[in-house]
Structure formats: structure tokens, C-alpha cells
Design brief:
Length: 191
């Protein structure tokens, strides 16, 4: 294979990945601002998956392509299928915080709370300064009735970023521990 052919294939691979990213970004961006219908989201997801399926021999891109396929299925509200791709990506690149967050999110939605906790514990070990990891771990621990762990990680999250206080009032994951006096003490600053 000549250098010119290789460069063309690399360029095509990059073009397909960029197209998939664009479709997924559009599906997510429009979802927040104008509540995109599920059928339109799924159409964008299908376009993204078609682009990703054209990537041949992804080499160093493989975990990212698997992540993008997981994101596509997550956006299309197929969390069980998304888990398959996120887990494959995580096996190859176990140090990717974004993959851990997405995998745990899908585990929660498929009632695999213990797995969500496990994944987020790994994320916190990866980056102990990640506010979102501590916050999500607190949410999943609360759902799993691990009150002490939930309160500890919520405290870490708030110490890392006090702005997370504004999220707590609307976070239904904490409903099971809201009446705990320690939860009230931790969140008293939000009032």
C-alpha cells in the first residue's frame, strides 16, 4: 500500500468519525433546546452508526468508535445495547472517565445499580478530583441504600465544586436519603 492510499484511507476514516460525532452532537444539542422527537433522534443515530460502520481497521480509534456507538444507542434510548459498546470500550481503555460515566448512566437505567456503583468507584479511583464522578457515585450509592458512602461522596463532590448544591434539590436519586440528618447538614448550604 502506498503512502498516498494510506493517507486517503486515514482521511476517509477521520471523515466518517467526524460525521458520526456531528450527528450525535446534533441529536444531543437539539434534545436539550427543543425536545427533538425520538424518531428524529433515532434517524440521527442511524446516520452516526452508518458512518461508524464504514470505519475499517480503526487501529488506535477502536475504543473511541465503540464509545461513539454506545453513545448512539444511549441517545436512542437503548441503554442495554449501549452497555455492550461501553463495556467493550472500557475493556480496551479502562482509564477513560467519559466511558465510565456513560456506562454507569446506562447501568442505572437498566436497574444494575450495583454495577453503576462499581463503575463509578473505578472512576473515582482514576481521578479522585473529578467532581462529577463523586457526585454520580453519591447518587448511585443513595439508590443502593449505601447511605454512608453516598454522604461521603456527596461531601467530596461539594468540596470540589460547591455549585453542585444547586443540582441536589431536583436530584431524585437522593430521595431515599433526604430525611437523613447528615444529608440535611451537608446540603444546608443550598438553602
Amino acid at each position: 500500500m502506498t503512502g498516498k492510499t494510506l493517507n486517503r484511507k486515514q482521511a476517509q476514516r477521520q471523515k466518517n468519525i467526524l460525521a458520526a460525532e456531528g450527528y450525535l452532537e446534533l441529536a444531543m444539542a437539539l434534545d436539550g433546546s427543543c425536545s427533538l422527537r425520538l424518531d428524529l433522534k433515532k434517524h440521527l443515530v442511524d446516520l452516526a452508526l452508518n458512518s461508524l460502520n464504514k470505519v475499517i481497521r480503526p487501529a488506535g480509534h477502536k475504543p473511541y468508535i465503540l464509545f461513539l456507538k454506545g453513545q448512539a444507542h444511549r441517545i436512542a434510548q437503548r441503554p442495554r445495547l449501549a452497555i455492550t459498546f461501553f463495556e467493550q470500550s472500557h475493556k480496551i481503555d479502562g482509564e477513560n472517565l467519559r466511558t465510565c460515566l456513560a456506562l454507569a448512566w446506562c447501568c442505572k437505567r437498566t436497574q444494575q445499580i450495583d454495577r453503576a456503583v462499581e463503575v463509578m468507584q473505578a472512576a473515582v479511583e482514576m481521578d479522585s478530583e473529578s467532581c462529577i464522578s463523586h457526585y454520580n457515585l453519591a447518587c448511585y450509592c443513595a439508590l443502593d441504600q449505601r447511605v454512608d458512602d453516598a454522604l461521603m461522596h456527596l461531601t467530596f463532590a461539594l468540596n470540589l465544586n460547591p455549585d453542585y448544591l444547586t443540582k441536589i434539590a431536583s436530584e431524585s436519586d437522593f430521595d431515599a436519603i433526604r430525611n437523613n440528618p447528615r444529608f440535611a447538614d451537608i446540603t444546608a448550604l443550598a438553602v
